[in-house]
Amino acid sequence: MYNLIPPLLRKKSKLHGCIVVIGNETHSLSQLFVDQAHNRAMPVYQVQHDPMQTNLKIEQQDSGLKRVRLNLINPTALKNLVGYIQRTGHSIELCIFQADFSKSLSNSDASAQQVEQLWQNTGLAAVNIAQAIIRQMLIKSQGTLIFLGTQPNLFAENNGLTQSMFASIRALAQSLAREFHPKGIHIAYCMLESWDSQNVVLMDSVKNMCWHLYQQPDSTWSQELSVGV
């Protein structure tokens, strides 16, 4: 029976799991995952958006963390990252996307260029990431994709643009969950009150929540959770 399986599929079935954390100011969270997954020998990739980066740039840190800089709005760059990870003998089992909390815009002050940049760094990046990561997870019908966003109505009324952007990511997560939960892919949206990478308690809470979602059996999968300190 084993010999009937095509060699390419046999190779992919032997891939070991890894963790990918995507977003700005995610070093502390990524390092916590290095410590969490140490016993499982799961590599951790910290991916940061760099619109000027034309080639895949990966740096191995002494702590064991792999830091990656790439253009998240370029689907080819994400495809190259997934390909690199597969060539190292790994598949992405847990991916966390932290949308940019720092770029809130008021309706009155936002220029067309700022609105476009916000959309690219959050909405468009989320779509590109979902496409690349889910495509790879479907190989084994296994994986967890988590979007970190804000709680509804958290932003003031004059920050409707930012509020709308996070609402669109939440809607994306809900749509993906309906489509891919039956196919073995766990999609979740996690609501945070704020993002402070220097807040050790908050980062540990986020890590624990994501790890809890990753370990949930499919019969009890959660689609939304919230974290507070």
TrEMBL record:
Q: Which InterPro entries match?
A: NAD(P)-bd_dom_sf
On the tree of life, the source organism's domain of life is Bacteria
Under PANTHER family, the record lists:
OXIDOREDUCTASE, SHORT CHAIN DEHYDROGENASE/REDUCTASE FAMILY (AFU_ORTHOLOGUE AFUA_5G14000) (PTHR43431), OXIDOREDUCTASE, SHORT CHAIN DEHYDROGENASE_REDUCTASE FAMILY (AFU_ORTHOLOGUE AFUA_5G14000) (PTHR43431:SF7)
Put simply, this protein is called Oxidoreductase
